[in-house]
Design brief:
By secondary structure, this protein is mostly helical. The protein has a domain of 44 residues. It is built from three helices and two strands. Strands 1-2 form a two-stranded antiparallel ribbon. Helix 1 packs across helix 3 and helix 2 packs antiparallel against helix 3.
Length: 95
């Protein structure tokens, strides 16, 4: 399933609508490198130098999309980390 980063995000949007519908269990495991980066982003912030944008993805839109999920109060923490890790794997390669 390919998800496009949403271009016009309102921070008051329904965050659940920004999240993938079906996230594989691998994105709930702490040994997944994308999960490790999502957790680091949550606790310390993220250095975008570790993210290499995949072709046809606009970095600013992808980061804004993931940040909106990350900073929301709605879903459980584990679900936000899994969603951001999944989206990160779709839109970026790790450097």
């Amino acid at each position: 399933m390919t998800i496009e980063p949403k271009k016009d995000i309102n921070p008051f949007d329904n965050v659940a609508a920004l999240m993938p519908d079906d996230i594989s269990d691998e994105f709930y495991k702490t040994d997944n490198p994308y999960v490790k980066n999502a957790q680091a982003w949550f606790s310390r912030g993220i250095s975008t130098s570790v993210l290499k944008t995949k072709p046809n993805v606009q970095k600013v839109h992808a980061l804004r999309h993931m940040a909106t999920i990350m900073h929301s109060w709605e879903p459980r923490h584990e679900d936000k980390i899994a969603a951001v890790a999944y989206l990160m794997s779709q839109w970026f390669d790790l450097a």
